[in-house]
Amino acid sequence: MPKLIALLLSLLLIAPPKTGIPDSKRASDVREKVWPKLQQELKSKGFASNGLQIYIRIIKDLSALELWAKQGNKYQLFKNYEVCSYSGGLGTKTRDGDGKSPEGFYTIQPKQLNPVSNYYLAINVGYPNKVEQLKGYTGSAIMVHGHCESIGCYAMTDARIEEIYTMVYQAFAGGQQQIRVDIFPFRMEEARLKTYAAYYPNQTPFWRTLKPGYDLFEKNRIPAEYHVKGKDYAF
Questions:
Q1: What backbone phi and psi angles, to 5 degrees, belong to 182?
Q2: Which residues cross the membrane (predicted)?
């Protein structure tokens, strides 16, 4: 029994008063293991690990999670991770229990980190966002997490989520207030959009609202700021 109690205590959240970032022994041990390696990789690619600022972009049809880091005034691709599993194919989530993974523009803050997740380590992407709330979409707790299995989330292998989670933690610890997570069904060039429109005609009007945000990032290498017009994204 004492060993069991010790194990449970070791997994309890550590409340760090200085950062306000949820933490646990599990997450701390992971950082101790992977952060030195990530710092070396950042340095070798010309990024500073101090004052780290990051941006995450997911491309569903490629099963790709791109992790971008700020270099000067723009973001440059740091690393590309394969998404182990996501459910529901292309097309965004609209209701609780539909088994779909969301598409859209999301923002994460420190409180959205879960260092004691049942899926190892997890980051809540913030679904439903303002647009989705206005549309009456339902569902919650949509995560990027470990354990390589998903029902509506974006699952990574444990080794991959260790790096992604640590980079997010270190960006927050370094002073970044919020991190954008943009999720697209595919790379949204016009030709590709037209191709997919033939197979997903009902999704095409919604995808058209995502394209300007995708294009602005491709042009400027800065996450596009959007506002809500009616019940849609506007830029």
A1: -105, 130
A2: none
**Who's near 161: CB < 8 A, 6+ residues apart?**
120, 121, 122, 144, 145, 146
Q: What is the pLDDT of residues 30-87, one digit of tens each?
A: 999 999 999 999 999 999 999 999 999 999 999 999 999 999 999 999 999 999 999 9
pLDDT digits (tens, 9 = 90+) for 125-166: 999 999 999 999 999 999 999 999 988 899 999 999 999 999
Classify 199 as helix, strand or coil: coil
Write down the domain spans for the chain: 17-234
Distance in angstroms (rounded) separating the CA atoms of residues 146 and 155: 5
- Secondary structure (3-state) at 214: helix
Both structure tokens of 224: 């596009």
Structural contact between residues 227 and 212, judged by C-beta atoms closer than 8 angstroms: no
185-223: pLDDT as tens digits: 999 999 999 999 999 999 999 999 999 999 999 999 999
CATH number for 17-234: choose from 2.40.440.10, 3.10.450.320, 1.10.150.20, 2.60.40.10.
Answer: 2.40.440.10
Check whether the bond before 128 is cis (ω within 30° of 0).
yes
Active site residues: 145, 153
Q: Which string of DSSP letters, residue by residue, matches 66-105? A: EEEEEETTEEEEEEEEE--EESS-SS---STTS-----EE
